[in-house]
Specification:
Layout (H helix, E strand, L loop, with lengths): L1 H4 L4 H30 L2 H26 L4 H22 L5 H16 L1
Helix pairs in contact: 2-3, 3-5, 4-5
Length: 115
């Protein structure tokens, strides 16, 4: 365990992952609340959870298989920046709320998160 903790860059990677998980947690709660408030439908919120969990689990393995060949040094920042851009688009969509684009972005973000 000490060898792992002393690897160069380990703490930066662990911190980035922890921050990403915290953002995902807060974002999931905020989006499910937003969808429920805008649609007034439990089915809309259920669709959100299916799109954020089930769809990436089904679509993720082929995506991850392709990404696994790339260098982590390039791949990780690209994935994190892509997720940040998607969250910015989601924030913009809250003013012009339509459920379908939100669910599509959630599926794409879930695939990126698995990557």
């Amino acid at each position: 365990m000490r060898e792992l903790l002393s690897l160069p860059g380990y703490w930066r990677l662990a911190s980035a992952f922890a921050l990403n998980q915290l953002g995902w947690f807060v974002g999931t709660i905020a989006l499910s609340y937003l969808i429920y408030r805008r649609t007034g439908s439990v089915l809309g919120s259920s669709g959100f959870f299916l799109c954020s969990q089930a769809a990436p689990a089904i679509l993720g393995p082929p995506f991850v298989g392709r990404l696994d060949r790339l260098s982590p040094r390039v791949l990780l920042p690209t994935l994190y920046w892509s997720e940040a851009v998607l969250y910015a688009v989601l924030a913009w969509l809250t003013t012009r709320f339509t459920l379908a684009p939100v669910l599509v972005i959630v599926v794409v973000d879930g695939g990126l998160a698995l990557g």
